[in-house]
Amino acid sequence: MTDAIIDIDRVTKRYGSHTVLQDLCFSVRPGEKLALIGPSGSGKTTILRTLMTLETIEGGTIRIDGESLFQMERNGRQVPADEAHLHRMRTKIGMVFQLFNLFPHKCVLDNVTLAPMLTKGVRKADAERRAMELLDLVGLADKARAMPAQLSGGQKQRVAIARALALQPRIMLFDEVTSALDPELVEEVLNVMRMLGSTTDMTMLLVTHEMSFAHDFADRVLFFDRGRIVEEGPPEILFTNPTHERTQAFLKKIIAAGQRI
Amino acid sequence: MEWDWEFVREIMPMLLDGLRITLLATLLGSILAGAAGLGFALLRRSKSRPVARITGFVVEFIRGTPLLVQLYFLFYVLPELGLLLSPLTAGVVGLGLHYATYASEVFRAGIDNTPRGQWEAAKACNLTPYQTWRHIILPQAIPPMIPALANYFVAMFKETPLLSAITVIELMSEARGVANSNYRYLEPMTMVGVLFLCISLIAVPALHLLERRFRPTR
Lengths: 261, 218
Known about the structure:
The structure holds two protein chains of two kinds. By secondary structure, chain A is of the alpha/beta class. Chain A is 37% helix and 26% strand. Chain B has helices at residues 5-44, 49-63, 67-77, 87-112, 116-124, 129-159, 171-182, 186-213. In chain B, helix 7 packs antiparallel against helix 8 (186-213). Chain B: Keywords: Amino-acid transport, Cell membrane, Membrane, Transmembrane, Transmembrane helix, Transport. Chain B: It is a multi-pass membrane protein.
């Protein structure tokens, strides 16, 4: 697939002797909303972390916009990417973390303006105006001067989303963004993501245990187990009529745990 | 032996001169210790193994040898190798480097305490390593360590009499000078103690204030 925005080609990732991803292949179209589901330890989060360059890979190639993430060309040869190449590649990608990872020493507004000012040289006034728009979008304009410690988990996560959006990435990675939240706060974060999904053409990859959200939100669902894609397809098929027994077992377990799909 | 207030009045200006040098040496020593301590801590985390190991060795070496020996080395041995330092410069460098090795342990602990998620968020925000240190890691790591650092600086203050061994005319050597020339030790030495105590007594509540101000919020 040449028009893919993300192309993962035979990627292998190991931690010591433990193989997390094994010859993984898949690609993502621009604007596609992709949900990655599967049991814990199946490698879903590792894929997002690798795309954000928080992890390296032992084998294979990841291409973003047709350009290799961890390799670059020098004098006609492919060599390991240097910091400048990684820096340029990261401008296309934003990430929201399970534990928010807001900067606790900076107020909400500064959390959102910091990266555009430092990495893109945006002037303070412009960065703040844009940040206020984004905070308004996630429903937190009135918290601009609050410190992260004063916010609820759901509010923190919405700030984290605004912070990632401030860099205008083409690809957004959501890593179990509601897993650390109290149940009553999950919905406010999902609402923001729904709104982003329907109003932007960003490519979005989410790792989630919220099956009904994945069902409604995603164009395509990948089911992972032990570092491989076991089954993939549109949500209406994968969730209601999975063909692989491991997918069936996983979904059965999820439903038994009380989740609606 | 009777306490002679007149004698105290007479020697006070000289003692205060000495105190000025003591405080100056402590201040400059603290600044050097803070800066070099941070430098040691960062170099020890260097990705280059040789740099990290050599720094580790230097830090252990400085910490494992007496300050007095280091002062002698700086002031009496270095000139033979062609590097002549003034007494105060040698004293400040000696104090600063010695306490930098302790400060570097404080910095190291503070930096290690910064959650991994902060590094990752900085990377996801595409900050450069320098920007990450400058805007994310150090502003979080340093405030909680300020009380521990200040403790070392008070300890350093009380070690400044060692500088008299390399002819720095600080409080202690001023006092010894007037004592020797007047054959009276009671008033000069008592006043040295009183002056050190006064400064320390001011420092203790200041330290408590710092501890309250920078108590970790997380």
